[in-house]
Amino acid sequence: MSKKKIIVIDDVELNRVILAEAFKNDYEILQAENGAVGLKKIRDNIDDIAAIFLDIIMPEMDGFAVLQELNINSLIQRLPVFLITTDATSGVIERAYDYGAVDVIPKPFNTMIIKRRVQNMIEFFEAKQQSDSSIMEIDHVLKMQREDLNNAVGSLIGRICEVIESRSPEDSEHVNRVRQITKALAAQFASDHPEFGLKEEIIDAISNASVLHDLGKIYVRDEILTKPQKLTTQEMEIVKSAPSLGAKLLGKVQGIPEPFFTFAKEICRSHMERFDGKGYPDGLKGNQIPISAQLAGIAEAYDVLVSSRVYKKAYSHSEAMKMIKDGDCGAFNPEVFSCLQKIAGKLVQDVYNAK
């Protein structure tokens, strides 16, 4: 097994020889008389370098210029750099640490102390690299798992949309638009409110889960869903039972992956809740309503308003936004509505293909 390498970059040959003698039994020693030569040798041997000794004052390229190059090329995180200098003043030391050097070693050298300090730091960097490698492997595994999850969710969504479309092509288009609106809305909300922790994978899960918002309507008779006249009190109670029935049905399904499953149940049950507590089925108020349900709820309300239904005409975008703001569809979280206003142009252009 070949030895790891230590490079000594110093224009004074005696300093290079002293450090080479101190480490030659354990490492292969590379030497460079200035920063430019040293950088080339570092690049040529990058996978084998264990540590760098770097003088400050040198011709052509000084030590700080070398440190700057190592920072620009992101090598400073991989390689422990020991600055060697006769000027170990506080200003020099502070600047060295700012550039990423791990230690400042004053001249003349005490090789016994240097060996211990250097070896400890080399071992630390090796352990850190192993840890970083393990993290990369874990990230790769998680990425593969997320891809498998997305495939499973995509297949599930496809089957659900087929079921919905078998009852009404209009409803199938509606759930797909709600999904698009929810995704755009969640992305804007995540940007405006980072405290909610809505990362990209969470946004995807919420928007995918939003297609299940009306799952409970499979328990509602077609003549009620398509009735052009105002619903009777009894018929309205049947409609109001749909969210809880849909959530109950989801709870019986085995093998739905997380976090899709949790968001689907939240949205299915709570997307008709309203911010003032006057929604249904549980009368939740304010942020008692899960944010997933708040996002999907306003997305669904907007799409219903701007789309034609058997019982209503399609309202314009401006009319729909005014109706939501005025509470004609119930009260929504003002911060969520603000996000809806910000993405309005994108919705009209991308979701509804306005020219």
Q: Would you kindly provide a written description of the structure presented here, covering whatever features stand out?
A:
This protein has 355 residues and is α/β, with parallel strands linked by helices. Helix content is 59%, strand content 7%. It is built from 14 helices and five strands. The chain has helices spanning 13-23, 35-44, 63-72, 90-98, 111-167, 169-192, 200-209, 222-225, 233-251, 260-270, 291-306, 317-326, 334-342, 344-351; strands at 5-9, 28-32, 49-55, 81-85, 103-106. The chain has a five-stranded parallel beta sheet with strand order 2-1-3-4-5, with helices on both faces. Helix 6 (169-192) packs across helix 13. The chain is elongated, with a radius of gyration of 32 Å. The chain starts with a strand and ends with a helix. The mean pLDDT is 84.
Short description:
The chain is α/β, with parallel strands linked by helices. The protein has helices at residues 13-23, 35-44, 63-72, 90-98, 111-167, 169-192, 200-209, 222-225, 233-251, 260-270, 291-306, 317-326, 334-342, 344-351; strands at 5-9, 28-32, 49-55, 81-85, 103-106. It has a 5-stranded parallel β-sheet with strand order 2-1-3-4-5, with helices on both faces.
